[in-house]
Amino acid sequence: NQFFKLFVLDIRNTMGLLFWGNFALATLVFTFRFTLFSKDSKTHLLVFGFSKIFQAFAWLAFFLRTDTVSINPIDIIITNTLVFTSYYLESVAMLMMVKGSSKKAFRFQFLLFIVMLLGFYAVVLVEAAANIRVSMASMIIFALLIRPSLQFLTEARSSLFKKILGINYVILLVVLVFRTIYPLFKTSTTLYSVDPTQKIIFPIIFLMMIISGVGYLLLLQEEKEIQVKKLLDDKDKFFSIIAHDLRGPFNGIIGLSELLLEKDNQLKPEETNEFIQLIHKSSKNAYSLLDNLLTWAQSQTGSLEFIPKKIEISPIMDKTINLLDNIAKSKNISIQSEIKNEEYVFADKDMLGTIFRNLISNAIKFTETNGKVLLSMTNESNQIVFSVKDSGIGIAPEKRANLFDINQKNTTSGTNDETGTGLGLMLCKDFVEKHGGQIWVESELGKGSNFKFTIPNPI
To answer: How many CB atoms lie within 10 A of CB 151?
Structure first.
């Protein structure tokens, strides 16, 4: 009996624990935010930290209530609004941790929060019984947490730690379901009830709160370590490209130029011209690779600023086509654009130009002589879908899966033996994702490829 008393606290003492627990967690979260984490993680921590602050003051407001029998709508609305807001912010922080969460998911969560909040206000204003209010409050918190919790558990390739945190939330959801149903059979049940079941529920909620708070910080730390590992892997790939792929074109330039110098008097004009063309081709390959390498390095180090604004698409497209026109003409490839004037997108001008340049350049590289490249765009569900379609050789299914991965070697030669490293496509993926979009390819061997990418369209 003495042992079980450890788990049964006076309701008001438990509320005090919940206040201090949330306050301590909020302090810990903001300490982490200012000392340890990246820019993206700081946004997560800001939302999660405010959720704990709101919850701390909610339990303080409950603790300070002296009259727990009569209905005071203002007191009830203020305290419960703080609680619901805290769990709404926590659910948003959870969604931010789930990869691929769409803006639609966040809008749905906000709409659910507003609807539930207004529903609770209506119940309070009609002076519903205390047990009904307690039941509804639990149902609202359950509704706010159910979707993010399930996404934590079912997310593809989620870590074991994320699943454990998801299970913790599921336990909390089970408690909330019980707390939604149980008061309906106890007409005298209130938040401050001396019912033994109530006394056990609050310590469980306190324990789940501590686990979820600390677990959330550990999960962010784990993701930070994964990002650091990825950066190190990318760095190794970066140096391997410099050591191998960049050396190749320069070796060709040096070798051909030395040969040209040694045999200048012995070569016929057409042979000299052939050497010059080869040197020019190697120089262009080296420049293109170096340009992509430097751009990617700037992107990874954060020195490349992302400045999205409203821009017209056709001038960027025309500039890119003119830049690559000579290469296309050498293979008699036509580049056609179906993008009309006065079509706009909210994007970074330089990054968008880099994406188009790499995709169109690749399309030319892998298209046979007399082929064509078609550029187009469509508006779909608040986003713009761009398409770069060619009539080239296509891509084998086994290569498509890792086409945008820097750690995979994708160096298929072009139709005129043009070389490449796959770095351009990785750069395209990086820039598209900075805009909040996605990039993919649809292809069939012998029938060409269609590279598509999306840019959200708030305009």
So the answer is: 20
Which residues share a beta bridge with 372?
334
What residues contact residue 363 under an 8 Å CB cut-off, 6+ apart? 373, 388, 389, 390, 392, 449, 451
Q: Which two tokens stand for residue 320?
A: 């890119």
pLDDT at site 341: 84
Query: Residue 94 half-sphere exposure, CB side, CA atoms within 13 Å?
Result: 28
Q: What is the pLDDT of residue 375?
A: 92
Distance of alpha carbon 42 from alpha carbon 30, whole angstroms: 9
Q: Answer whether residue 109 shows pLDDT above 90.
A: yes
Whether the pLDDT of residue 267 is over 70: the answer is: yes
Give the HSE-up count for residue 436: Cα atoms under 13 Å, Cβ half-sphere: 12
* Predicted pLDDT of residue 406: 58
- Quote the CA–CA distance of 102 and 429 in Å, as a whole number: 18
8 A C-beta contact, residue 75 and residue 96: no
- Sequence-separated (6 or more) residues with CB below 8 Å from residue 212: 90, 165, 168, 169, 172
User: 0.90 exceeded by the pTM?
Assistant: no
- Phi/psi class of residue 382: alpha, beta or left (left: φ > 0; alpha: ψ in -120 to 50)? left
Tell me what the mean pLDDT of segment 342-370 comes to: 87
Question: Could you give phi then psi for residue 19, rounded to 5 degrees?
Answer: -65, -55
Take residue 137 and report the two structure tokens written for it: 């409050």
- Asked whether the predicted pLDDT for residue 359 surpasses 80, the reply is yes
Please name every residue paired with 144 in a beta bridge, in sequence order, or none if there are none. Answer: none
CB < 8 Å & 24+ apart, contacts of 151-156:
151/94, 151/95, 151/98, 151/101, 152/94, 152/97, 152/98, 155/98, 155/99
Rounded Cα distance between 52 and 31, Å, is 13
